[in-house]
Amino acid sequence: xxxxxxxxxxxxxxxxxxxxxxxxxxxxxxxxxxxxxxxxxxxxxxxxxxxxxxxxxxxxxxxxxxxxxxxxxxxxxxxxxxxxxxxxxxxxxxxxxxxxxxxxxxxxxxxxxxxxxxxxxxxxxxxxxxxxxxxxxxxxxxxxxxxxxxxxxxxxxxxxxxxxxxxxxxxxxxxxxxxxxxxxxxxxxxxxxxxxxxxxxxxxxxxxxxxxxxxxxxxxxxxxxxxxxxxxxxxxxxxxxxxxxxxxxxxxxxxxxxxxxxxxxxxxxxxxx
Length: 273
What we know:
By secondary structure, the protein is mainly alpha-helical. It contains twelve helices and no strands.
């Protein structure tokens, strides 16, 4: 019950928050610009220029915006004393964080649906209509990214004391998982023996949510060959009958573990103080 109450409050606050509408405007403009400017010329296995550009833009922009919105939202509650007031109602940290996650998730998924809906209408108006399946694919791809990174954002907010620490933590996580990850990945693989290559690839992919979602999505649309022979086993299991269920379980684990750890560390730290 407490979780639902916090979630409802977060939904109301979210749609009154200028950050939400800034997120909506920015993401809609970027989406429209890319989808309207790309020629959409088909390449191997149906993978298009538009698809690749859109996925790359989403991977760069969406995790950062989600991390900032989620972590700052929690940090502000602690900084301005709202959490202190809410805690007098026997509200646990775990319930509070889950309520924040659910409320913010509903807000952000609504924003994404609106953004892609507007983009589809404008693309049709300019004579470059997009299929419903394409719009649904991008919405699902973006939604999964949002849900995972929102869990990370909530954990960051639980661990920091103010919004500036939340900003620094969010940018750091985004920089590591999105910007510098390929360089780190290549550097590590270059010094490891070949026998360990496949194991390191599999483990490291599950450790980075951005990479996990990107690889899974591209393999689902038939573009798995771009990753090379090292990912042949991934192509097999992703396209198997248990590929999607396993992916969903991994996503749930990511969200549950990050929020759970955030609540646990926050509670133990307060007990020591």
